[in-house]
Amino acid sequence: MSNFGFPFSLEHLWQVCGGQVLLVVAGLVLIIADMLLMDRDKQSRCGIISWITIASLAAILLHLVFRQWDSPTVVLSGVFSADRFSIFVSAIVLLSALLASLLSIGYLKNNRAANSEFYILLVFAVYGTVAFIQSVDLLMMFITLEIMSIAVYALAAFLKECRQSQEAALKYFFLGSFGSAFFLFGMALLYGFSGSVNISVIARSISANGLFTQAPVLIALCMILVGLFFKMAMVPFHMWTPDVYEGSPSVVTGFMATAVKAAAFGVFIKVLFVTFTPLLSQGGNSANSITANLVALGAYWKPVLWWTALLTMFIGNLLAVSQKNLKRMLAYSSIAHAGYMALGILAANAEGRAGVLFYLVAYTLMTLGAFGVLYIIDGVERRAQTLDDYKGIGFKYPGLAFLMSLFLVAMAGLPPTAGFVAKFYVFAAAIKEGYMLLAALGIITSVFGLYYYLRVIWMMYMETVERDVVPADMGAPALVAIVIAAVGVMYFGVLPESLSDMAQVAQQGLAAIF
Amino acid sequence: MATLNYYIVLASILFGLGAVGFLTRRNALILFMSVELMLNSVNMILVAFSNFRAEMAGQVMVLFIFAVAAAEVAVGLAILIVLFRHVKSVNVNKFNVLKW
Questions:
Q1: Contacts of residue B100 in chain A, CB cutoff 8 Å?
Q2: Interchain CB distance below 8 Å, A188 and B49
Q3: Quick check: B100 and A178 CB within 8 A?
């Protein structure tokens, strides 16, 4: 018996929110553990907390992939949905957080910032991100978006002594809250005109009332897109990205560039294809008229996304060419990757959505790997972030340089890496829907990409400069993380089927939300 | 008799003022206020809709938004204070270590 109008039991809660509940519990356990360890010195406390974090993130990742994946549950009082799509994106976020926390152990030590708060903030940021992805209610999306963002603002500002870190955090904070205000305004309009904030109820309501192509709904759509574009770092809402990625601590940048972006893309796909262009593969006759009505909306958002994708690919790649600082270059490259993923969304077919999911996995692995190598070299060489600092790195650290080359080659989209397969999927999906011109322009931009990625490799192997720096300790956990990323990039490049099948299944989960 | 449209228009104007203020003013504290103005214009729309539709959901949302905005500003001001110790200014043009 239930008064809520939905079957409510602890078991049901566990099925739907298992990952979220575990994350909150992990966060609370970390806080308590931190207090219990008060009498130890900071260094060892941070060490213990970091290993608890890594263990719990790994356990939750396994829970999502092996338990929740097999029993997707749709809705808990219309707020959260643990469908396969959400689980897939949540798993990407957890993977990113896991690699970032492995990387962070050495990073915090090298920067004399070994405070256990880092991991507590990280776990709550992951909670916010996962809940953001799993929510199907615009208000809950806003709240969880803020839970995620506030924790990430604090993480970005984590190096208190470092002015860059503070500046990056403040810029991220301002632009982030500016963006979420737009999201909120869109949400309020949709609530007003449909009487609900649930994304599928909104879809039915605006379709049934014939509002689907009227100004208020279009303004709302526009506002929500702007809000999400800020988080996805799409041109012209990308201005904050290079500054924030450069200034933030490298591990936080890695997390921001992958987990936050994956979440924003996941929610973007969800809102777009549930509320504004539902893909009702199952849903009966009543659903067909809704689809027909809402497909008309496609005429409005598709041109917008066409231009945004084009600008994002061009500006990301072009500005990356002129960068001297590697972190900044990777920031522009991550903008460019957002453009390629937008191409897959624009295609609006099953291949495109599955392609974007595959791309997100590949992107997460190669970006975190590259930021990982970057920070290790930065640490062992005592500040080496510019292109010139990379001269001769290939001879000094052959292993690291090899892995860096692998990640860069993957980002450039060359076979046999996951980066190539991912680009292939999204371009194929776009071409299938007739976006020939955009795909061609996209391929041209990736030629620029080739130039600036390969330039780094050239610097590492073809130039020699003697820098007499005593190498610092690089730390085993970070190496483990980088090797995991490298193995993933190679494995999904050579044998992409397992992952792309999963992505295909995951994108079908979207229809379950409606 | 003020109808729903008046509230929507007024809230949109406030939102626009907030956005313009955010983009043109250079004092970090004013930027905070601008963002708050944008959030509060949304609150206004929600209350107006809630009243118009004769249901409470919109007003409940306002409370959530208040809470979130307060949490956000708490973190934002903390970051600003730490940055102020480095820069000795709240002018965002002075926050220029990072640029291309």
A1: 242, 319, 322-323, 328
A2: yes
A3: no
| Regions in chain A scoring below 50 on pLDDT | 1-5, 280-285
Nearest CA of chain B to the CA of A178: how many Å?
A: 6
Which of B81-96 are b and which e, b meaning 16 or more Cβ less than 10 Å from the residue's Cβ?
Answer: ebbeebbeebebeebe
Q: Are B71 and A154 contacting, i.e. CB atoms less than 8 angstroms apart?
A: no
Query: Which residue of B25, B55, B68 to mutate against A (max A Cβ within 10 Å)?
Result: B68
Q: Give the nearest chain B residue to A322 (CA atoms).
A: B100
Closest-CA distance of chain A to residue B72, Å = 6
Position A281 scores a pLDDT of 43
Contact criterion met (CB < 8 Å) for B100 and A171: no
Q: Is residue A2 within a helix (H) or strand (E), and if so which, with residue range?
A: none
Query: Tell me: the pLDDT tens digits for A149-196?
Result: 999 999 999 988 888 899 999 999 999 999 999 999 999 998 988 888
Q: Please name the amino acid found at residue A76.
A: L
A80 backbone φψ class: left, alpha, beta (φ>0; ψ -120 to 50):
beta
Main-chain dihedrals φ then ψ at residue A386, nearest 5 degrees: -90, 165
- Contact residues, chain A, for B83 at CB < 8 Å: 163, 166-167, 169-170
Contact status, residue A51 vs residue A105, Cβ threshold 8 Å: no
Count the residues in chain A: 514
CB contact under 8 A, B53 and A195: yes
Q: Both tokens of residue B66? A: 């208040």
What are the structure tokens assigned to B50, written together?
A: 């809630």
| CA pair distance A311, A333, nearest whole angstrom | 13
Domain residue ranges in chain A: 10-512
Do B42 and A181 count as a contact with CB atoms less than 8 A apart? yes
Tokens at residue A31, please?
């806080």
Which residues of A are less than 8 Å from B30 in CB distance? Answer: none
Q: Do A173 and B75 touch (CB under 8 A)?
A: yes
Token pair of A112 as six digits:
């004399």
How far apart CA A321 and CA A332 sit, in angstroms, is: 9
**A84-110 and A261-271 helices, crossing angle to 10°:** 160
- Any idea which residue has 């504290």 for tokens? B29
CB atoms within 10 A of CB A20: 22
Q: Provide the residue type at A268 as one letter.
A: F
Q: Which ipTM score applies to this complex?
A: 0.95
Provide the whole-model pTM. Answer: 0.93
- Is B19 or A294 the better-scoring residue by pLDDT? B19
CA distance A152 to A261: 12
- Are A228 and B88 a contacting pair, CB within 8 Å? no
Q: Which of A153, A168, A184 sits opposite B39 (nearest CB)?
A: A184
Cβ-based neighbour number of residue A65 at 10 Å: 17
- Transcribe A252-308 into DSSP letters: HHHHIIIIIHHHHHHHHHHHIIIIIS---SSSHHHHHHHHHHHHHHHHHHHHHHHHH
